[in-house]
Structures are given as structure tokens and as C-alpha cells.
């Protein structure tokens, strides 16, 4: 699943194309939108803002309408020059917005919806999110409060994936953040101090901010199926599924114990 830095990266690419402008064309090619009349409802409306929160992306139009997107496992955004080859089959396009010679494309949903601004504010999937790890100023007190409201027996790695605690962290950043802070992702949240929890976030946030700028996330992969870069061979990284999603978690049993 694309993590918060990837969504912010897409947002940063879409914003200069659409924000403050009226699209020249807007299409919803997928059959599921046949009766929704998005082109008619959004015709002539300026895009007020393009922004992200955690793993959610919002295109906000004049008149109190917002396109909300969450890519889950299958979706993607692209910004292309008009006429350039699409990276996916045309039948997989759910949204196409053109302004000048640039096209903004969303492929394969799976969450793409047009809602009113008031509904966007009240929607529980959005309203209950924790602080965005990539916000200009991270609300650390709110993060800690949400963390302490959670089950203290829950492993800290699993707790970090809960978007109600902190929005934007996915499995990659959970793994790398815990490793960088030398915290065992299997340690019970109740046994992790506030300072240790913040250390994970402080290690993760600057890396994510760089990735959100240039889209190069793989540079931060250090421990996936490799010897521990701190302990070296023969100390190997361990792995097993964690949480309800059974996300594969990697850690070093030696230096993260």
C-alpha cells in the first residue's frame, strides 16, 4: 500500500497542474461512475486546493465539492504530458483531468469519491485520523495521547500502523523507524516510553519528508531480508507477520532487543 510520503509526493506533482485553475477536461472513464455525472457537476469549477493527509489525497473544488482518494493496494496517480503513453491500460483509468498540456490520471481506485466539504469533515475514515506525520508541524502531544489510549499490550510496530494513532506510516516506515530507533517492534506499547515512541517518529519523519519531495523511497530500505547493517553477518534480520493485516515485519533480534 502506498504510504504517506508517496501520497504527498503525488500531491506535490498534481498541485502545480491544477491548484487555482479550472480544468480544461474532466473525465471518469470507469463504468462505475456512469451515473454520477462528475464532468457536469464539476464543469467550470476552479480547483481550490490539492492536499494530502496521511494516505488520503483531496482535490477541493469551488462550490464545496471535494474528490477524495485512497489508493489502498491497487491504485496509483500519474501526471503526464498530454499524448504520452499511459503506464496502465485505458480501461483501468478511473479519473482523467487535463489542464493545458498536462494530464492528471488516477488508475484502479479503489477509493475515489466526490463528496461535499461538510461530508469530508465528518466522514469517520478522515475525522478519526491521528496527526499526519508529514504535517508542517507534527502534533507530538496528540500522537502520544492517541498511543496511550490504545491497548497497552499491542506491539508498538502494530500500533504505529493504526492511522488513528498517527497517519501516514505504513509497513516500510514502521520497520525502518523501529530499526533506526533500536526499538523492538514486538515490544508491548505499554513498555515503550514516550521518549522511545517519539524517537521512532523522529527517525521516520525526516526520511519521509525527503521521499515526499523526490519520490525515491527505496533508498531508505536497509533491513529487508539482509544481514543487520549494525551487527553484520552472521546476525540476520528476522521476519514474521504482525497485526491483523499480517504485515511482514523485519527486525534485528540482537540490536533491537
Could you characterize the architecture of this molecule?
Strand 9 (238-242) and strand 10 form a beta hairpin. This protein is 30% helix and 22% strand. The longest helix is centred in the C-terminal third of the chain and has 21 residues, at 194-214. By secondary structure, the chain is α+β, with helices and mostly antiparallel strands. The mean pLDDT is 95.
How do the helices and strands line up, and which of them pair or pack?
Layout: H1 4-18, E1 25-27, H2 38-42, E2 47-53, E3 56-61, E4 65-70, E5 76-81, E6 93-99, E7 102-107, E8 111-116, H3 117-122, H4 124-127, H5 140-149, H6 156-161, H7 171-180, H8 194-214, E9 238-242, E10 247-251
Antiparallel strand pairs: 1-6, 2-3, 3-4, 4-8, 5-7, 6-7, 9-10
Comma- or semicolon-separated keywords:
257 residues, alpha+beta, 4-stranded antiparallel sheet, 10 strands, 22% strand
H/I helix tally: 8
What structural class should be given to the helix and strand makeup? alpha+beta
Main β-sheet description: 4 strands, antiparallel
Radius of gyration, in Å, reads 20 Å
Number of strands: 10
Distance between the termini: 28 Å
User: Going across the major beta sheet, what is the strand order?
Assistant: 1-6-7-5
The proportion of residues forming helix, as a percent range, comes to: 25-40%
Q: Overall 3D geometry?
A: elongated
Give me the oligomer status.
single chain
- Summarize the helix and strand pattern as letters: HEHEEEEEEEHHHHHHEE
Amino acid at each position: 500500500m502506498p504510504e504517506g510520503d508517496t501520497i504527498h509526493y503525488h500531491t506535490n506533482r498534481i498541485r502545480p497542474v491544477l491548484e487555482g485553475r479550472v480544468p480544461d477536461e474532466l473525465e471518469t472513464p470507469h463504468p462505475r461512475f456512469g451515473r454520477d455525472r462528475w464532468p457536469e457537476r464539476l464543469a467550470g469549477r476552479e480547483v481550490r486546493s490539492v492536499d494530502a493527509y496521511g494516505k488520503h489525497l483531496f482535490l477541493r473544488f469551488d462550490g464545496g465539492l471535494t474528490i477524495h482518494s485512497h489508493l489502498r493496494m491497487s491504485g496509483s496517480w500519474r501526471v503526464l504530458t498530454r499524448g504520452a503513453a499511459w503506464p496502465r491500460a485505458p480501461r483501468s483509468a478511473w479519473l482523467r483531468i487535463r489542464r493545458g498540456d498536462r494530464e492528471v490520471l488516477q488508475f484502479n481506485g479503489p477509493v475515489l469519491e466526490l463528496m461535499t466539504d461538510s461530508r469530508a469533515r465528518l466522514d469517520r475514515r478522515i475525522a478519526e485520523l491521528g496527526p499526519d506525520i508529514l504535517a508542517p508541524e507534527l502534533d507530538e502531544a496528540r500522537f502520544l495521547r492517541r498511543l496511550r489510549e490504545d491497548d497497552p499490550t499491542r506491539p508498538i510496530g502494530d500500533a504505529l500502523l493504526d492511522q488513528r494513532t498517527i497517519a501516514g506510516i505504513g509497513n516500510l516506515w514502521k520497520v525502518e523507524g523501529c530499526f533506526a530507533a533500536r526499538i523492538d517492534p514486538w515490544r508491548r506499547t505499554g513498555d515503550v516510553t514516550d521518549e522511545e515512541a517519539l524517537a521512532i517518529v523522529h527517525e521516520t519523519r525526516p526520511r519521509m519528508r525527503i521521499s515526499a519531495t523526490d519520490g525515491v523511497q527505496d533508498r531508505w530500505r536497509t533491513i529487508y531480508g539482509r544481514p543487520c547493517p549494525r551487527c553484520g553477518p552472521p546476525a540476520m534480520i528476522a521476519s514474521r507477520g504482525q497485526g491483523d493485516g499480517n504485515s511482514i515485519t523485519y527486525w534485528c533480534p540482537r540490536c533491537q532487543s
